[in-house]
Amino acid sequence: xxxxxxxxxxxxxxxxxxxxxxxxxxxxxxxxxxxxxxxxxxxxxxxxxxxxxxxxxxxxxxxxxxxxxxxxxxxxxxxxxxxxxxxxxxxxxxxxxxxxxxxxxxxxxxxxxxxxxxxxxxxxxxxxxxxxxxxxxxxxxxxxxxxxxxxxxxxxxxxxxxxxxxxxxxxxxxxxxxxxxxxxxxxxxxxxxxxxxxxxxxxxxxxxxxxxxxxxxxxxxxxxxxxxxxxxxxxxxxxx
Length: 240
Hints:
Elements: H1 2-9, H2 14-17, H3 39-42, H4 61-66, H5 69-75, H6 89-99, H7 110-113, H8 126-134, H9 137-140, H10 145-150, H11 157-160, H12 171-176, H13 211-217, H14 219-229
């Protein structure tokens, strides 16, 4: 099984080599930071709350009713469910979401993309999924420990042992903090977009600390920008 894990994980080895090998996360005294157990592994599981409404408030109600969007969303399983597993809530949340969507991989099929390219999904190999879910969370699931062990002898030692250096935050959240982004919360949608969105119900995005909610509430702006440039012969609903 070790060989199987090594063969699959070697495909994502670039994730460890993406930054300079000398990059280190240091403590206040300049020494490399100590390995500590992440909060997710020490804190008790979060209380599961009701799933959010799959239909955003800013979606035009007439459009929603005509296309029966609420019923279709419920048939597809709505939004990704909250994780309930006491140890691996995120992993079980994602896997359950994929299992309940039989068309999850359709967008990668040549019949959909129009490109004669076969997509592979090595990280969803059942052998790898079952193996990873069977690992004790500590130390194997902390700070890429399983990756580092599997790729011994494959990557240079400085790269293999380099601490994680994640982004300090979401780039779009940082941009929204700038004054030049103030227009986003005051944009006026074009006439075509108003058939699908209710401008009065779009929440303010600047200052909202939740990146997932902000990303959701930026979609009306994206639709508006697209419709300003889209051909005028076809509507979103497919009528001409």
